[in-house]
Amino acid sequence: MNGKNDKLTKLTAHKNDSIIVGSSKPTMDMRHLIEIVASSNGPVLVCGPTGAGKELVAEEIHTHSARSGKLIALNCAAIPGDLIESELFGYEKGAFTGADKQRIGRFEQSHRGTLFLDEIGDMPLALQSKLLRVLENHSIQRVGGKSDVKLDLRIVCATHKNLQDMVEEGTFRADLFYRLNVFPITVPPLKQRGEDVLELLTVLIDKRREQSPGVPLPVFSQNALTALMSYDWPGNVRELRNVVERAFIIFSGAEVSGKHVRENLLTLRVPGVVPEEENNAMWEATRDLPGHATGQVFGSDEAILPQPEDYRNWFEHDDHIDLRRHLRDIEVVLIEAALQETGGMVSAAADRLNIGRTTLIQKMNKLMIAKDIKVSSPSPRHP
Ligand SMILES: Nc1ncnc2c1ncn2[C@@H]1O[C@H](COP(=O)(O)OP(=O)(O)OP(=O)(O)O)[C@@H](O)[C@H]1O
């Protein structure tokens, strides 16, 4: 890393033997729980929203256990319901058409190791009772088989669904739920552990750099970091990983500003850049506004701001305007300009904008604007 990203690394990197990145309290608490539970052989239920790191928790539990076997995974949502049984239990030769030789299933593959059943909420009801029996008896029968195979099993399940609700609806067996829920671990959504964002960003940038050495890094400005930290992350760490991916593609070797983050990287929340036609239409429609044609609006001591009334004939130029977006853009530009003018002094900027300091701070938080606005930032490679 170079420049700001170097600083970022020093600020946020921490050394430990965990694959779970993050030093926020919720993450540390979760890691502590994992350490406690890893050494037991009981089932663990990992809950949390999609992309938050449930699979990583399963990996960590296995790594910290003393179990000598492998970590074997099965995603119950990714396999058609009628195939899950043979995937899990394996089958004997001739058990069904196409079973031309014996096959060992995931239960047996995970003997002395850990079986990770992802999306357990998607397991068909009929199989749920079979899983319960395995948990009680510590043995399985292959499909088409007659004898029991004794196994040393450790099961970790994960779900983003609310199993308790499913139990009430009758779509998840209560007895299995209580058997699995002995040791629940909840992976909090990323928005509840905002302090982890910078650490994760550093690690994800490093990982991405390892994949393509020689590609110049995107350099995140302070504003960009502030914007990332104030975002809600509905897609959690997976979404952050996608943001890093996009940053490498769009801003390789360039500085990423807060505006770039809002408009180019967090496209889930803020739709992409204004299409060129929309931009042109905006320019066409405002070129006749007072001051615009003469460059006075931004260029002269006698600048005249466009007046609200001047927008009255907007629809003579275009059929639509995204009002919320337009008003938000004006707010962002003026607040950033005021902060720049006052060297990041919030009270002074609030004076210039004729609003209260608290109001300005609320707006800065909402619009993800940092105090220390950069004077200029290079354009992205492919804006
Ligand atoms: N704390 C973390 N530290 C480092 N990487 C993380 C962390 N949490 C998640 N990731 C990364 O984010 C991505 C998504 O994580 P993971 O697949 O574990 O999420 P999940 O909760 O199992 O999602 P889903 O419910 O959609 O399967 C992976 O690339 C994972 O490596």
UniProtKB/TrEMBL annotation:
Transmembrane stretches, start-end: none
Biological role stated in the UniProt entry: Required for activation of most nif operons, which are directly involved in nitrogen fixation.
Self-association state and partner proteins as the record states: Interacts with sigma-54.
BP-aspect Gene Ontology terms: phosphorelay signal transduction system; regulation of DNA-templated transcription
Sigma-54 factor interaction domain ranges (all copies): 20-249
UniProt-listed Pfam families: AAA_lid_14 (PF25601), HTH_8 (PF02954), Sigma54_activat (PF00158)
Keywords: Activator, ATP-binding, DNA-binding, Nucleotide-binding, Transcription, Transcription regulation, Two-component regulatory system
Name listed for the protein in its UniProt record: Nif-specific regulatory protein
GO molecular function: ATP binding; sequence-specific DNA binding
Matches recorded under PANTHER family: PTS-DEPENDENT DIHYDROXYACETONE KINASE OPERON REGULATORY PROTEIN-RELATED, TRANSCRIPTIONAL REGULATORY PROTEIN
Domain of life of the organism encoding this protein: Bacteria
Signal peptide: none
CDD domains, per the entry: AAA
SMART domains for this protein: AAA
Lineage: Bacteria, Pseudomonadati, Pseudomonadota, Alphaproteobacteria, Rhodobacterales
InterPro entries attached to this UniProt entry: AAA+_ATPase, AAA_lid_NorR, Homeodomain-like_sf, HTH_Fis, P-loop_NTPase, Sigma_54_int, Sigma_54_int_dom_CS
